[in-house]
Amino acid sequence: MKIDSGTTAWMLAATALVLLMTPGLAFFYGGMTRAKSVLNMMMMSFGAIVTVTITWMLFGHSLAFTDNPSAALNNFVGGFDALGLQSLVETATKDDGTGMPSLVFSAFQMTFAIITVALISGAIADRAKFGAWMLFTVIWAAVVYFPVAHWVWGTGWLNTMGIEDFAGGTVVHINAGAAALALALVLGKRQGWRKEPMRPHNLTLVLLGAALLWFGWFGFNAGSELAVDGTAGLAFLNTQVATAVAVGAWLVVEKLRDGHATSLGAASGAVAGLVAITPACGFVDPWAAMVIGLLAGAICAYAVGLKYKLGYDDSLDVVGVHLVGGVVGAVSLGFLAAYPFLDQQSEGLFYGGGFGQLGLQVLGPVAVGGYSFILTWIIGKIIDKTMGFRISTEDEVTGIDITSHAETGYDLGTVHASGVSSPNGPVTAPATKKVDA
């Protein structure tokens, strides 16, 4: 089939937008940590870009998007027809009628794998060995992400049953959120958790990261249509609407509960809305996108407090925002999915559909969440028992940036006298107090 230049140009742009989301996530997460951990937190996102890119090229695309020769195994994982992506080079365009080069589709899907892995890192801020994290990203992508992508977006069992996930509520956010919970339990709580203040050290970075995520998410959601058409436009609009409403809902909850509407709440509400609309953006009317955003903003604002009640240290609220927000979005399709965006048999209850689609939209999060949690816990435990996953207590107290990377995010030292002058001669820098990062 002849390459469609318009579709190809849009998908190249969408791919770049989704890739931008991972550096955006690095800013978002980095600003939420303490100053002594910001570089390590950002390095975990950049590390995922490296490892998942290589893993995807070698065998990830093949496991996710080719058919397994065994019909039984094909329900769970793809085959090996695209190892090294060589077969995609030889087949210029996808056979789905979009006119998109096969390699462009693969690059687009690769960026989804990258950010899914990077999302998990927020749950274990301040305390994970960088080398152990890098190893984890390779193993987790291979045994969790690639098979789950095949289940839902390939020819796996959930796709065959009819689950709907437009852009990754189940594959990306529930998958990453469940993994984040498991890994937080494996590594345990940070030193001083609930006893020492662990507030975000730089809310400016948090807002910058949220803005980059919001911007990139238009490629994430609208690009998932894989075409330039009305559904892509619907996904684009719904993404904006749901996110704006979610920010408002989160801020209202904060104001009523705490007396203040915060910038951190605005950033977190935006991400919650983006997460929740992701599986539904191309399948619901704009009014329904408002409902999803409202539910996500309010529910996730309360869900982030679960860690204090249940006693797990999810450092940057990956569970409360991505797992819970992903479930809100996925299940909402059982109520709000609309014809003609979907086949009539896939309509939600509010549009005259039956309970079948609602059951599938519940089954997907349960199956993916359970699989991801169990496999992540096993992977984490194996790494922890072999090479060790957590840094020492001394290194954690000192700060993981300096002990793991020999760098600091900020120069908090004294002013050098040699670099300062005055009409009366050299100025001696005053002694400075030690800064508690």
From TrEMBL:
The keyword Transmembrane applies. The keyword Manganese does not apply. Belongs to the ammonia transporter channel (TC 1.A.11.2) family. Keywords: Ammonia transport, Cell membrane, Membrane, Transmembrane, Transmembrane helix, Transport. This is Ammonium transporter. GO terms for molecular function: ammonium channel activity. InterPro entries: Ammonium/urea_transptr, Ammonium_transpt, Ammonium_transpt_CS, NH4_transpt_AmtB-like_dom, RhesusRHD. Residues 415-437 are annotated as: Disordered. It comes from the Bacteria. It is found in: Cell membrane. Involved in the uptake of ammonium/ammonia (NH(4)(+)/NH(3)).
